[in-house]
Amino acid sequence: MTYVVTEACVKCKYTDCVDVCPVDCFHEGPNFLVIDPEECIDCTLCVAECPVEAIYAEDDVPDDQRAYTALNAELAKQWKVIIERKDPLPDADDWAGVKDKLQYLER
To answer: How far separated are the first and last CA of the chain, in Å rounded?
Structure first.
């Protein structure tokens, strides 16, 4: 099983999770992070660090966000690994509670 970054991360991109990842499985896009399922070791450390609760175990991803499982795998192959914490996007707090953000994901 792997962990999956879901919709709550879109347009926020808090990187608290990156700091605790022991295997550098996070990849960074313009306004979203993903987890490489091939690298994730299921340690669960990132889950508690996410301030917007965007990270789920693959088996626990909400039904309305199942597409993010494949999206994480796809984008992890395209985006660069992020290994250090960065500031979130400038308006991250404004987007933190917004729903249905897939349309805003930048590739």
So the answer is: 25
Residues 23-67: tens digit of each pLDDT: 999 999 999 999 999 999 999 999 999 999 999 999 999 999 999
Does 65 reside within a domain? yes
Q: Is residue 98, in this structure, part of any structural domain at all? A: no
Output the pTM of the full model: 0.97
- Amino acid residing at 68: Y
Classified as helix, coil or strand, 17 is helix
Range of the domain at 24: 3-82
Q: How many structural domains are present in the chain? A: 1
CB 10 within 8 A of CB 32: yes
